[in-house]
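B., you asked whether I could sanity-check this one before it goes into the benchmark set. Here's the sequence:
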Amino acid sequence: MNARSDDDAALEERLGYTFLDGRLLDAALTHTSALPPGGVRAGEQLEYLGDAVLGVVIADLLLQAFPHLDEGELSRRRATLVRAPTLAAKAGTLGIGQALRLGRGEDRGGGRGKASILASTYEAVLGAIYRDGGFERARAVITRHFAEELERGGIAGTPDWKTTLQERIQAEHRTVPEYRLAGEEGPAHARQFTAEVWVGDRYLARGQGTSKREAEQQAARAALESFGDAAMPSSGT
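And here's what the prediction gave me:
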């Protein structure tokens, strides 16, 4: 096992993976600007691997979590999860920017916060994990890193519960949910709305918010949570 710095050890703890070969992590974290002129960045090959592994794992996780979605929708959600802004945010959360090996000029120029560098380095780190521990270890890391997004519908950013619910209802019942304003109270500057979501004559759930839109989103979320892993009961039951 290669000796590693305290910073690398801390990063490994945040990643949820300890490298057997610390040189792989070092290569993943070394930016081109830190290499001598004409130097070849080994991290580019790791980035290539990481991109491929991430795509396969996310595709499989989405298919397992949302078997009712068609290929087009699965592809759309995968694209939002593996795009550069999403990966840069992951890198930021993990503190990868602080661990980067940058050239002095790039460092002074704010390289540690550049989305393009963070996203590519995150992919390189995943590639390094794949090289070091194999596919299943890389899959386990990716699964942990994207657990929150998968829990809220396989969507990066603010979850759109209404879209998720509509897709599910359309897939299972060939219709769309209807939202009804069920209540409105409070002073004008602090209005509270209550919305209900229905499918035909079947009540599903209700939600509250400071706007009609928020109340509908919360109603959709409550409906999805009430389903659990089971399909929505048909109108004949």
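One thing to flag: The chain has two domains: 6-151, 161-227. Otherwise nothing jumped out at me.
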